Amino acid sequence: MEQGENCESFDKIGPWLVTRDEVADREDLSLWLIVNGATMQDVSTQTMVYSATRVTSYLSRFITLHTGDIISTGTPPGVDMRRKPRRYLKPGDVVELGIVSLARQRQDVVADR
């Protein structure tokens, strides 16, 4: 089993969230991810296996969802363990990511304490 995106310091949210009226179509958001200047992802939420609507509907059968709840859906194609050769982040790497017209972030990879 792979640890994937489930490390102690992962899943940081922010620096802000947007409201529904700021998102034209959540089923067609352009996403991008760059590592050290190399584009690793340039995709849309349209490429996800399950739409945001379907995931939300499914989860709401088992848990009560409230305004502001965040559902982590994984990642669209481009960055996963099937890449050949595999590429792992290392201290000094710079990761930039964003959703076109909504937000962008930058993370500097540091060594584990």
Give a quick summary of the entry.
The protein is mainly beta.
Task: Report on this structure.
The protein is mostly beta strands. The chain has one domain: Fumarylacetoacetate hydrolase, domain 2, CATH 3.90.850.10. The chain has one helix spanning 52-59; strands spanning 30-35, 38-44, 94-99, 103-108. The chain has a four-stranded antiparallel beta sheet, with no helix packed on it. It is globular, with a radius of gyration of 15 Å.
Topology:
Elements: E1 30-35, E2 38-44, H1 52-59, E3 94-99, E4 103-108
Antiparallel strand pairs: 1-2, 1-3, 3-4
Distance between the termini: 24 Å
Radius of gyration from the alpha-carbon trace, in angstroms: 15 Å
Number of helices: 1
The CATH topology corresponds to Fumarylacetoacetate hydrolase, domain 2
Order of helices and strands: EEHEE
Count of domains: 1
The count of β-strands is 4
The biggest sheet, with number of strands, parallel, antiparallel or mixed sense and barrel status, is: 4 strands, antiparallel
Query: What is the architecture at the second tier of CATH?
Result: Alpha-Beta Complex
Helix content: under 10%
Fourth CATH level, the homologous superfamily: Fumarylacetoacetase-like, C-terminal domain
Query: Mean pLDDT, nearest integer?
Result: 82
**Low-pLDDT runs:** none
The outline comes out as globular
The secondary-structure class comes to: mainly beta
Strand content: 15-25%
Order of strands side by side in the largest beta sheet? 2-1-3-4
CATH class identity = Alpha Beta
